[in-house]
Amino acid sequence: MLAMWLGFDDQGERLSLGRKLWEINWGFVLLVILVASVGFSVLYSAAGGDLDPWASRQMTRFGIGVLLMLTVALIDIRVSLRFAYVFYAISLVLLVAVELVGKVGMGAQRWLHLGFIQIQPSELMKISLILAMARYFHGLSIEDVGRLRWLIVPIAMCVAPAALVMKQPDLGTAMMLLSIGGAMLFLVGVRIWKFASVIAVGLIMLPVAYAKLHDYQRRRIEIFLDPEQDPLGAGYHILQSKIALGSGGMFGKGFLQGSQSHLNFLPEHHTDFIFTMLAEEFGMIGGLVLITLYVLLLIYGYAIAFRSRSQYGRLVGLGVTVMLFVYFYVNIAMVSGLLPVVGIPLPLLSYGGTAMMTLMMGFGLLLSVYVHRDIDIPRRIGGI
After folding, report:
1. Residue 136: closest CA among 305, 377, 382
2. Which residues pair with 144 in a beta bridge?
């Protein structure tokens, strides 16, 4: 225990700050900076060729995020293991606090004011859920994972925050929490037939769930199926997004030349629909280049995760990688009309603070897994 806090490895050799910095996967860090730089350029264009108000603030937030990422990377992976349940409990309490004293914005109650800063606890829960599930399954054998009674706790870990987030209401984030939890259950070896059973029950309950949705959420689904029914109202966002995507063609209209965005036909072009703006100015080629960069991040993430000697490190790495995938897949599918509009930002590109910090914290955990990849954590530390 003392060795962990002092930063010693299993052989008693002190892990100096210089050694840890040397061990950081700097290729991954540079790739993160490259993707973020694409975002700065698009935000610069979104403001008509001006750093203010979005690009400059995003650069500042990203700079703070890089410091946060590197700080988390240098912390012994066993520290996050020991406090995983504490982080989860705090995040759950903050979600409950949102229900009681949260700030209402854009028709939803999602924010908490903490003096000089406001936070979105649902974003913090994404990281906390990964850590808590990774610790739980770190202490289980493959035989335990196959027994239904051992799955009650992790399922409750996913459902409880998702239910609280749904009440805000925030369907997109709730589905993202369930997706991350479901992916981690799959990764630890839960059998396919159990997922099929849950899906079958979900399909049976679908009419009941649909009836429980808010009016605007049902409207989103209806517009997703037929956006032409309200082209100047609820269907406006996705129709304009498709027009901008199509008008970009193969190579785009050129930097600062996106007419749909610069003439304000495309709403939220600096946040949820930033991929549409990029594709309008740089075309399908530009969109594919960005997707390729995301895929490279995924490859790095999976490689780092499977390099770890500990089950906990592998699960944390895989969880963060899955979170990144869900972020960019849902956003790009959403603005392309393949999924309903649910308000999920594009990672490292969309303007925003809490989502940026959450993602950078996740990247820091991924780097921490790599720095401490050779530490073998006994299974008895995990579990409940």
Report:
1. 382
2. none
Strand 108-114, strand 117-119: pairing: antiparallel
Please give the C-alpha separations between residue 323 and each of 118, 329, 360, in angstroms, as whole numbers: 23, 10, 12
Polymer length of the chain: 384
Instruction: List the structure tokens of 176.
Output: 């993202």
Residue 23 lies in a domain: yes
Query: 382 pLDDT exceeds 80?
Result: no
Which of 296, 275, 273, 252 has the alpha carbon at shortest distance from 33? 296
377-380 contacts, C-beta under 8 A, 24 or more apart: 377/77, 377/78, 377/81, 377/138, 377/310, 377/311, 377/312, 377/313, 379/138, 379/139, 379/141, 379/311, 380/139
Q: Are the C-beta atoms of 308 and 136 separated by less than 8 Å?
A: no
Residue 2 lies in a domain: no
Answer with the residue of higher pLDDT: 83 or 116.
Answer: 83
Secondary structure class of 114 (helix, strand, coil) = strand
Is 270 within the bounds of a domain? yes
**Tally of domains within the chain:** 1
Q: What pLDDT, on the 0 to 100 scale, is given for residue 332?
A: 95
Under DSSP, the state recorded for 14 is B
Cα–Cα dist 302/318, whole Å = 6
**Which residues lie below 8 Å from residue 343, measured CB to CB, with a gap of 6+?**
170, 172, 272
Q: How does pLDDT run across 236-257, given as a tens digit for each residue?
A: 878 888 888 888 899 999 998 8
Confidence of residue 161 (pLDDT cuts 50, 70, 90): very high
Whether 177 is in a domain gets the answer yes
Domain housing 94: 16-381
Instruction: Label residue 230 exposed, middle or buried (CB < 10 Å: 0-12, 13-18, 19+).
Output: middle
CA–CA dist 242, 275 (Å, integer): 11
Closest CA relative to residue 130, chosen from 380, 369, 381, 373: 369
Q: What are phi and psi of 334, to 5 degrees?
A: -65, -50
Q: Helical H runs in the chain? A: 2-6, 17-23, 26-46, 55-74, 77-82, 84-101, 121-138, 142-145, 152-166, 171-187, 192-212, 215-225, 236-248, 259-262, 274-307, 311-335, 354-371
CB 333 within 8 A of CB 287: no
The single residue listed with the structure tokens 């594709």 is 279
pLDDT at 13 over 50: no
